[in-house]
Design goal:
92 residues, Multidrug-efflux Transporter Regulator, Chain: A, Domain 2, 4 helices, 67% helix
Length: 92
């Protein structure tokens, strides 16, 4: 499901200035054009995670960047392992 900027802001509980900052940091990468950005459910979950890291756990901006980078790597590895498992399964 895709959300407009307004829908995303409402679902994520953040303000427009925060969204702009997070996009500049590349913590969120919306789809669509600059004029008509679109967001996915994953973007909403990621925004909530960032907010929780900052507000509940007190992680600073640099730490958020590191955590997001590590999570992205983990999901990439997970995807690669899933593909590899499928290849091994089909070649037997």
């Amino acid at each position: 499901m895709k959300f407009s900027t307004q829908e995303f802001l409402s679902l994520s509980g953040m303000g427009h200035d925060t969204l702009t900052a997070w996009i500049e940091e590349e913590w969120l990468i919306p789809g669509g054009s600059v004029a008509e950005m679109s967001f996915s459910e994953i973007d909403v979950a990621r925004a909530r995670l960032i907010r929780d890291l900052q507000m509940d756990l007190g992680v600073n901006d640099e730490g958020v960047g590191v955590i997001l980078n590590l999570l992205d790597q983990l999901y990439g590895i997970r995807s690669t392992l899933t593909e590899l498992r499928e290849v091994v399964r089909t070649t037997r």
